[in-house]
Write a structure and sequence with these properties.
TIM Barrel, single chain, alpha/beta, 8 strands, binds dihydroflavine-adenine dinucleotide
């Protein structure tokens, strides 16, 4: 019940100001956000690599309102890539981007987002790594998939995300699986209306398994984005049945969530990538993490009260 309320609050400026200023916020945010700057995230990347984990780095931010902010987002990723070059980790450290941070919702936003993200994908390729386009709310997806297709003409390793809760996703999965794309499948983290998305957890989980099967049986590279133990073991079984080797798919989880499971899957020989978010504009990302698990909200409320 609380999830949709928190998701609505994630788009409110008033709530943003309140939550950002609340005592105790920083301590709770630090569980999910690996640092505020490139300097702070680099040691986290090195630590993950030392443990046999891979990362996908997200400079947090979304729903920007000016072209200058879109250029700043591009520059923040270019700065990150400069630092990754020194680490020389190849695809062990890739990046995830939200096109809304690159200007997608502004006037002429589709072209602006493409023009801004292309240099990032180019620079990533130059250091031997890749970029994955995150999935945001359903109104942005046609543009995201078109940008993905355009980028793949020159950079076929560019990945994208599909969300099991959307009715459209099985068709998207078929298209992407047939053309050999890297695809991350997730349940979906936005507040979506019943006209376009399943609302019940059981329906979303069933859709997730249907989409997983399509991806595992297809030509692409499936990236299983979930912390759900049931879906993880189903993914392992579907990969086995599809005859996929351990390096022909990967698991992905979020920084700060089920860390022991990251290590367990890596120790079993799986590719395990940790989605590692950092930066100062953490509000939207943080609120979605609260919405996913009400216990997080209780912890957050307690940390405010005990200060
Ligand atoms: P579920 O929510 O059922 O959680 C299973 C278990 O995991 C819980 O019981 C709990 O133990 C743990 N858990 C899950 N979330 C937690 C949290 N926030 N705090 C503490 N414990 C938690 N969404 C999207 O719309 N677009 C995107 O691009 C992405 N990208 C993305 C990348 C990666 C690597 C992951 C793992 C997830 C995303 N998501 C996303 C988010 C995704 O849509 C979904 O909201 C979360 O992964 C939660 O769903 P689970 O599959 O983990 O299952």
């Amino acid at each position: 019940m609380l999830g949709p309320v928190i998701l609505a609050a994630s788009r409110s400026d008033r709530m943003r100001r309140f939550v950002s200023a609340a005592p105790g916020t920083k301590q709770v945010v630090a569980r999910f956000i690996a640092g505020e700057s490139v300097d702070q995230v680099v040691p986290v990347v090195q630590d993950s690599a030392a443990k046999g984990l891979e990362v996908t780095l997200d400079v947090v931010g979304e729903d920007i309102t000016t072209r200058e902010q879109a250029y700043a987002a591009r520059d923040a990723y270019l700065e990150l890539i400069g630092r990754l070059k020194e680490l020389d980790l190849g695809t062990q450290a890739e990046m995830s981007v939200k096109l809304s941070m690159f200007g997608q919702a502004l006037d002429g936003g589709h072209e602006l987002a493409l023009a801004n993200v292309r240099p990032v994908v180019e620079a990533a390729a130059a250091i031997g790594t890749t970029v994955t386009l995150d999935a945001e709310d359903h109104t942005t997806l046609d543009s995201m998939f078109a940008i993905h297709e355009e980028l793949r003409k020159d950079f076929p390793g560019t990945g994208c995300v599909i969300q099991a809760y959307l009715f459209r996703t099985e068709a998207d999965a078929r298209r992407l699986a047939a053309n050999g794309s890297r695809v991350r499948i997730v349940k979906g983290a936005y507040k979506e209306p019943a006209e376009v998305a399943y609302q019940q957890k059981s329906e979303i989980d069933k859709a997730y398994v249907r989409v997983l099967r399509i991806l595992m049986e297809g030509e692409g590279y499936p990236m299983i984005g979930s912390h759900d133990p049931r879906l993880i073991s189903i993914a392992q079984e579907l990969a086995r049945r599809a005859g996929r080797k351990l390096d022909e798919y990967e698991f992905q989880m979020l920084y700060g969530i089920r860390g022991e499971e990251h290590l367990r899957l890596a120790a079993e020989g799986h590719r395990m990538r940790v989605y590692t978010a950092y930066g100062t504009d953490w509000y939207g990302y943080f609120m979605r993490r609260l919405a996913e698990k009400p216990a997080n909200l209780r912890f957050f409320a307690r940390s405010m009260l005990t200060r």
